[in-house]
Specification:
The protein folds into two domains: 1-147, no CATH class; 155-359, no CATH class. It contains 17 helices and no strands. The protein has helices at residues 6-41, 50-69, 71-79, 83-106, 111-137, 149-184, 186-222, 226-253, 255-263, 270-287, 291-297, 301-323, 330-354, 358-366, 370-386, 392-414, 417-435. Helix 6 (149-184) runs parallel beside helix 12, helix 8 packs parallel to helix 15 (370-386) and helix 15 (370-386) packs antiparallel against helix 16. The longest helix has 37 residues, at 186-222. The radius of gyration is 23 Å and the shape is globular. It starts with 5 loop residues before the first helix and ends with a helix.
Length: 436
Amino acid sequence: MAQDDKTSLRAIFYNAEIAHLIIAVLSAVSIEIIGLWLLYNKLDIPETQFEAAVWVFHFSVLSFVITVISAPYNAAIIAHEKMSVYAYFSIIEVVLKLLIVYLLYVIPYNKLIVYGALQLLLCILIRIMYNIYCHKNFVECRGAHTFKPEILKKLFGFSGWMIFGCVSDTLSKQGVNILINIYFGSVLNASRAIAVQVQSAVHMFVTNFMTAVKPQIIKSYAAGQLDSMYRLVFSSSKLAFYLLLVLVAPILMYTDKILEIWLINVPEQCVIFTRLVLVELLITASYTPIAQINQASGKIKRYQIAISVIYVLNFILTYIAYEMGMPAYFTFIVSIAMAVFGLFARVYILKIENNFPLKEYLTKIIIPLIPPTIIICLVQYILKSSVNAESLIGILATILLATIPTCFIIYFMGLNNQERGFVNNNIKAIYNKVKK
């Protein structure tokens, strides 16, 4: 794109489509073989829901395939920085998900199977919308295409290591699910699923934030503007962490009340599961932006091996802990420890591979995050202790009240002058837009 070479751009896009199709097919076959063996031989699933579990498994695999083969289209949107497209399509997706919830009440059939099938249909519909948009607006997504093995080789050389890391992460997470199922039964699987659902919903804010920041980091690296890139990475690390902290701090304080209002009957250990996954999320959010340096440079071998080892260690240590009789929530403590260890492993490898300013990152970003976080948690705790909120309205009012001092602490203690200027400019831009 930077060289305005439309022919090469089309070739890269087309060969990326082929690469993702190959990845999707090979992965789907592997998942089906291993997954069905686990379903029929290892997992503790109630007999009355076994057929539904098998159907949902197949629906999930198909959804996975659709997501993988659509990745080049998502990449095109990100590369062109058309972030508003995500906003509009996300609104449509949320509305359709609400419709799915309504349909579960009116369709007289197994709710689990219906939910899985409707989620698959939604996945297909959203993918069609993205594809139509890309074909209409981006030149690389239409016109003559050429198969080029040399491009495919380069793509697999890069994506192979990325897949290695992603597969390790997936095996670790689903492996822990299997361990919980074997050692503690399906009830605690449900508790973990709810905790992860809360984590995913909160993490979406950082994901959307990083989707907007990622192209700028990669383009700065490609242009050789390393100082500018590091400033962007450092600032986005802080802003991603504080954005999450504003959301996570009140949830940590009112986890039990929120889950009671949401679920009525809260599964065993769900509260502690949820709190621990949110703590882990806060830690990982602080170093999410630095991963973009690794991807921009293309030097990903050591990095992906390191994080893969961390994911595998998470599974192995969980297995050892359960064999020793540790409680189910201990896996989340292991994950938090691995997240801290992963931070130092990531920045150390980036220093070796990309001359990353490790000392500056730790002293100017990571360590300064600690004092505002402690103060914000103390303020939240004091407010919770002072206000006995039981109803949903009361909890929401208390959370909104606590958000005011939280934002002031972040603004005056957590940000430097340049970052405060960035925030001020965005507030002014929003105000002027509303005023018009």
